[in-house]
Amino acid sequence: MAGALGGISTIWIVIGVGWLIAHLGMVNTPGRRLMSMLAFSVGSPALLFAMVSRASLDHLFSATVIVSALAIVVTGGVAIVLARFVFRGGVGDGVITFMASAYTNAANFGLPVAIALLGDATWMAPILLMQVAFLMPVCLAILDSQAARASGTKLSVGRYLVLPFRNPITIGILLGLACNLAGVQLPDWVMRPVDMIGDISVPLMLLAFGVSLRLDPLPGRGEHQAQTWTVVALKTLGHPLVAWGIGTAFGLSGPELYAVVVLGALPAAQNVHVIATRYHQSELVARDAVFWSTIASVGTLLGIAALLGGH
């Protein structure tokens, strides 16, 4: 567990630096939005292109991935219903609530957890690919469509169809997938700058998150707290329980069942907050859900390790 705790501490140190630079007046609210925009439009597309273009696609059709996908659909579906009928939110709010409840931090948090609890970082590859290649493009397409409607832009059927392919993150994912499927290996002089630009993504996300903690209302305050705690409960308790139930129904046991439950218990990803900021949808719910689920997931993961880790 030391590796997982080390990964958690790294995340919070970088977030703390973001809080500090905002406290010292080095970054204001427009600066935070610029950081989020750079992470969304520049860093993340490069990072995801590099990752998807090099990833092994063999794991995408295993039973554990099917279980994880169904757990995301069930947990996220409950979140959407609650967002619409209990918290009376719109389409954009429903998308962000779905992502905060079911889109896991499988990269900078999940990798050290996988090494520490599962003994193998490759468990993260299928969930990463599923999220970035399928889940994120669908969510972004809905948000782009909603933003166009809100601005009064009339979209033809053709414009609706091409809208997802105008999003920088979706473009990065699809280009990476195309290179992977075609077996294209780009030369080092191309990939080195791509890697360098991609490397800014996660630090910028974390720094922007820390800036938000200083400049925006503190987590635990505000009218959005009922929705936030519902999302946190779904992410840290509901999601792993659903994964366990579906995994058991599919006949998974031992390390495979343990793995899908651990994957479900990971906290909400920081890029959920970046996306919420980009589209001005439920920003504080996304931020607080990331904040509290990152803390609460430590206890959940320890409990899962105690119950299932020895099997």
Top keywords for this entry?
single chain, 311 residues, mainly alpha, 14 helices, 0% strand
Could you characterize what this model shows?
There is one protein chain. With 311 residues, the chain is mainly α. It contains 14 helices and no strands. The chain has helices at 2-23, 29-54, 63-85, 91-102, 110-118, 124-150, 157-162, 168-182, 188-198, 201-215, 225-249, 254-265, 270-279, 283-308. The longest helix is centred in the middle third of the chain and has 27 residues, at 124-150.
List the helices and strands and how they pair.
Layout: H1 2-23, H2 29-54, H3 63-85, H4 91-102, H5 110-118, H6 124-150, H7 157-162, H8 168-182, H9 188-198, H10 201-215, H11 225-249, H12 254-265, H13 270-279, H14 283-308
Structure in a nutshell:
The chain contains 14 helices and no strands. It has helices spanning 2-23, 29-54, 63-85, 91-102, 110-118, 124-150, 157-162, 168-182, 188-198, 201-215, 225-249, 254-265, 270-279, 283-308.
Using the alpha-carbon principal axes, give the shape.
globular
Number of strands: 0
Radius of gyration: 19 Å
Report the total helices.
Answer: 14
Low-confidence parts lasting 5 or more residues at pLDDT below 50?
Answer: none
